[in-house]
């Protein structure tokens, strides 16, 4: 599919690491492995805000027979330290992380630490207005010691809510931040426990309750019966809450992977659901990702579904053709920084009038803004 406007608006070289939360904490050079997967919202001024995941990595992670990881320690102001792992005890096949060998569980460590950078854009999302380094969000307690990742922002009533993935040996969990203006964020609490990623809060309430899509992960899934239209594996589930802090999972399934295509062999949430009208039918428009197996990472594409406005477990419409795919032309000018390919990971959507402004991470490297005409959703 061709779009009138489709461009990268932030790349790694646009981030000033002299203003990073990690600056000055240890004697090792770092670089921006990726500035990507931006949460997106519209501010009261009309400008847009991207909350960008900055993955800050060691320039030389391997030295003296060890691979090193960055970790936050200490309450209050905190500090960042380097941990050294003997190379004979790890598997470094994936450039984004390494696997610690031995033991009874699959155990990973990261080659970078992520923090969140607010980037203000023009109302159409095409020009940068300001980069708010003074409002960056970084680890502040032990459950975030390996970083804060992949923000998703929803405006519900007059309050902004942001879910993030917090990473630590304690748990791989979803944490919630709130804001009265979309720029100044307060840490609320952990809201979903271990291995529950891609939590997307609906931009509006249903019967007075907050609703969200969730995506719990695991290494074991039970089979559907032979001939089922569904494929076992990660799915997009639903939950509701009276206060956005305590969540009750919905017993009915949400969006499940289809057996007829390998494009949804793995799937998860993309942008927070927004109220929309498709072909005259109102509902919650949700963009989500499907992953086709390929090499280590896979091929990530963006798809869409329209959910019933009163019962989002009912899927009114869905499209099996991808809405967005990775665009190699966009990343050609930064080809020398590429480390994964075939990845577009959509994380935000706002209404632009006749079109939607869609924000995505491109190649786990940069922030992509695409204007998608509302007529594309048919």
TrEMBL record:
Coiled coil segments of this chain: none
Keywords from the UniProt entry: Glycosidase, Glycosyltransferase, Hydrolase, Transferase
Pfam families reported in the protein's UniProt record: Glyco_hydro_130 (PF04041)
GO molecular-function terms, A-Z: glycosyltransferase activity; hydrolase activity, acting on glycosyl bonds
Top-level lineage group: Bacteria
Record SUPFAM superfamilies: Arabinanase/levansucrase/invertase
Family as reported in the entry's similarity comment: Belongs to the glycosyl hydrolase 130 family.
Name assigned to this protein: Glycosidase
Species the sequence originates in: Sphingomonas chungangi
